[in-house]
Structures are given as structure tokens and as C-alpha cells.
Here is the input.
Amino acid sequence: MTDNIPAGYRKNGAGHLIPEELIAPIDLARDQVVQDLVTQAKAVQAQLKQCKTYTFGEIDAFVDLSAEQYDVKLGGKKGNVTLISFDGRYKIVRQVQDNITFDEQLQAAKALIDECLRDWTEGTRVEVSTLINDAFRVDQAGNIRTALVLSLRRLKITDERWKRAMEAISNAVQVTGSKAYVRFYERVGDSDQYSPISLDMAGV
Here is the structure.
């Protein structure tokens, strides 16, 4: 046993040493099932980590190889890429998602937007006001929902204050990091649609 536990004893959830002869057989059986399954799960997790490292390495190597065909040297972080097998049956998609936050300029944008809303009270569609106000509400973790704030830039509003607000939003964007994802797809039969090859236990 681990943690210097004497032979014939088990440590319970409170950290107490309990003689095995005092532990109910069903509790010992449950413990064995849990220990065996967790050991297997950790082994699969290690394989997934190894597969992930290998996959990203192979994709990066291929992207560099492809660039070399045109005497181009890629620098910096690699971006989104889709690779499809020759027969079109398999597709691999690598996506890089930036982690975005906003600096203090977002407050200036909000102040300009509030000015617009006050002046537009008469005749402004309620849906537009609701959309704008909802974009600046924080989520359960207290964070601004970046996608909603950035979506305001797609609204076709010509007011100069609104335009300055949208510029302030753009200037407020700070990329604090990025995270890469890779997804595998397979086309079954004669269908043109790709179905995901799930690596999630719930989706297998």
C-alpha cells in the first residue's frame, strides 16, 4: 500500500487507519472496483496526452512541409488548418482559439453607448436596446462575455458616438493567450456530411 500504510490496514476518507477485518466486504469490493477503473482511466488519459502531442507535432510538421513547397517560412504560432485524406473519407481540423479580455477602454465604449441609448429612447427598437445592454452583463464568474460585446460591431449604426464606441471596443481587445483544439471527422458511406470521431467517453 502507499503512504506508509501498515499491512492489513486501509486509510479511510478522514485519514484514519482501519483494520481490514473491520471493513465490510462490500466496502472492500467497492474500493477494488474504483481502484481498478481509475488505474485504467489514468492509462487511457496518458495515451490521449501522448496522442495529442503526436497529433499537433505531425500537423505542424506537415504545415511547414507544405509551406516549403512555395519557399515560405512560417513564423510564430500556427493557425487554423483543415487536412483531408486523399479519398475524402477523413478530415482533421485544428483550431486555435484566442483568450480575449478587455482593458479600461471598454468603459469608455460603454459610456458612449449609454449616451446613444439615452438619446435613442424614442423610436429605438426594444430588441436593439436589450441586445446592447445584455452584451455588457457579466457571466456567473463575473466576466464580460466577449463574444456578445464583439458582436456589437456588426450592428449597422451610423451615429458618430457609436462608431467611436466600436473603435474603443476594438482597441480594448487584449489577447492574453490561445488554446489549440484538434477534431477528427469521418464521412460514412456516400454522404457528403462528416461525423465527428468522438474521443469523449460520453460520446463514444
User: Anything to note?
Assistant: Helices lie at 25-68, 105-119, 126-135, 146-151, 160-172. DSSP finds five helices and six strands in the chain. The longest strand covers residues 173-187.
